[in-house]
UniProtKB/TrEMBL annotation:
InterPro entries: Rossmann-like_a/b/a_fold, TilS/TtcA_N, tRNA_Ile_lys_synt, tRNA_Ile_lys_synt_N. ATP binds at S44, G45, G46, P47, D48, S49. One of its GO terms (biological process) is tRNA modification. The N-terminal region contains the highly conserved SGGXDS motif, predicted to be a P-loop motif involved in ATP binding. Residues 40-214 form the tRNA(Ile)-lysidine/2-thiocytidine synthase N-terminal domain. It is found in: Cytoplasm. It comes from Novosphingobium colocasiae. It comes from the Bacteria. It holds the Pfam family ATP_bind_3. Its EC number is 6.3.4.19. It catalyses: cytidine(34) in tRNA(Ile2) + L-lysine + ATP = lysidine(34) in tRNA(Ile2) + AMP + diphosphate + H(+). The keyword ATP-binding applies. This is tRNA(Ile)-lysidine synthase. It is an enzyme of class 6 (ligase).
């Protein structure tokens, strides 16, 4: 059965499509020419994801499906999903709206978790080979500056990678426009005559990202693309540290009757990663970076310390990590 013919008004320039296909082929080389490999596009209705949708639909005709996750956090979200569905109908691209419930707590983190869980389930149901999102160079630069402003370490400063995995799922997560500027993607949408949805939080100065976005826009002496490339280099450095930490863990961490013994050998950045892994394994919680750094300093000084529900003691053999003893409740008279 032939694929539906897309509305000619929505077709991007051939140069844009060629550029996109080349970028996608770099991170998805085994599948881009495989006729059976279909790509899922996460489309919020904003200009970035709409541009991704238009480019992917032309680069992979008949092999693209789209989904809009409705977090139901704003009154306009259902209407925005309907508008994406209408654009998909004009493109001949199957579309699904995925309503989710966002748990209480950190709204952005919980929304992200719910979004990726919904997309992973949708991709599995539809037999999709990967999911693509519209993260771009300006996103990378904004995140790097925001994290620098918070004194983040290498892990926090590392930019998103062009290819990764959907959190909690065995599914490729692709970011094929990571080297594109926001203006490049906006031009694709403008040329199609589409009115993209605008999230008001993107311009709300109460949010760090919105303030940094405005500051970067007004600093014409900054090279945003170069900043984004630096975020990518930091991602490479983060991967190298993680690789070295895994080796350090295998060689220098041993089981003890009540926990784990670590004989640190590597530089500080690697040791901090190993400590974090030990805490996760014994305590079941992700430790904060500041708490891990304070624990490291105490141990180097030869002082016993604690983190979460663990007690850590330096001794002649190394650093001993164990669950803190549970204090028995005093019996009432």
């Amino acid at each position: 059965m032939a694929s539906p013919v897309p509305d000619p008004a929505l077709i991007p320039s051939s140069d844009s499509v060629s550029r996109f296909r080349a970028d996608l082929g770099t991170i998805w080389p085994g599948a881009i020419d495989a006729e059976t490999a279909r790509l899922g596009i996460a489309v919020s209705g904003g200009p970035d994801s709409l541009a991704l949708l238009l480019l992917a639909a032309m680069a992979l005709p008949g092999r693209v499906e789209a989904a809009t996750v409705d977090h139901r956090l704003r009154a306009a979200s259902a209407q925005e999903a309907a508008q994406v569905a209408a654009v998909c109908a004009r493109l001949g691209v199957p579309h699904a709206t995925l309503p989710v419930d966002v748990a209480e707590g950190n709204v952005q983190a919980e929304a992200r978790s719910a979004r990726y869980a919904a997309l992973a389930g949708w991709a599995a149901d539809r037999g999709l080979a990967a999911i693509a999102t519209a993260h771009h160079a300006d996103d990378q630069a904004e995140t790097l500056v925001m994290r620098l402003n918070r004194a983040s370490g290498v892990a926090g400063l590392a930019g998103a990678r062009a290819r990764g995995a959907v959190p909690g799922a065995r599914l490729d997560l692709l970011r094929p426009v990571l080297g594109w500027r926001r203006s490049d993607l906006g031009a694709v949408v403008d040329s199609a005559g589409l009115a993209a949805a605008q999230d008001p939080s993107n311009a709300d100065p109460r949010f760090d990202r919105a303030r940094i976005r405005a500051a970067l826009a007004g600093a014409d002496w900054l090279d945003v693309a170069a900043i984004a490339q630096s975020a990518g280099h930091l991602a490479d450095a983060d991967a190298a540290i993680e690789w070295a930490a895994a080796m350090e863990y295998r060689q220098m961490v041993k089981k003890e009757p009540f926990g784990l013994l670590y004989r640190p050998y590597a530089p500080r950045a690697i040791v901090l990663r190993v400590i974090g892994r030990i805490v996760r394994e014994l305590d079941g919680e992700e430790p904060r970076g500041g708490a891990v750094a304070r624990l490291f300093d105490a141990l180097v000084d030869g002082r016993p310390s604690s983190i979460g529900n663990l007690v850590v003691r330096p001794n002649a053999s190394g650093w001993s990590f164990a669950k803190a003893p549970v204090r028995a409740a005093r019996k009432r008279d």
